[in-house]
Amino acid sequence: MLRQPAFGIALSTLVLASGFITTPIPSHSSTNSTTQPVASSQLASSTTTFNTTALEKSVFEQINRYRASKKLPKLTLNANISRQARIHSQNMAKGKVPFSHNGFEKRVISTSIRFNSAGENVAVNQGYSNPASQAVIGWLESPGHLKNIKGNYNLTGVGVATNQQGEVYLTQIFLLTN
């Protein structure tokens, strides 16, 4: 890990929005949120450019390894879900939408997949050599995010985007299909 030596201030941060889930709803018309505190940690700084496709794959693989370790079925990666997750991460990275779950229901409906329940995890970090791993570590340490990761879902999608400030935005959407 690299450290920012100027004035001993670490410039790396990880921020997690609370995990967001829905209850089983046939009409897909309402959502409930799980409130967890926003977590922030500071470690190392870096101005690395990331391959967002590789980060998406890494998040997917790490979550499935975790689920397998807990004897939970692996999730299937879905291109439509990943597209919606990626759009959300891109919009947050560009400042078009705040770092949040705003628009979650629309994202899920836009996948055009019939579902019984859905969840979403988001993270933003900066300065880590492996932002995907750092996001997954943060999610696993957060009860609301962990609930989504361990949840009764069968499909997932992951989207990652970066911006000129070096921030890495990550979104993972979970669905349980009919």
TrEMBL record:
Keyword terms: Signal
Span of domain SCP: 61-174
InterPro entries in the record: CAP_dom, CAP_sf
PANTHER family, per database record: SCP DOMAIN-CONTAINING PROTEIN
Lineage top rank: taxon: Bacteria
Keyword Signal: yes
Signal peptide: 1-17
Protein name: Alkaline phosphatase
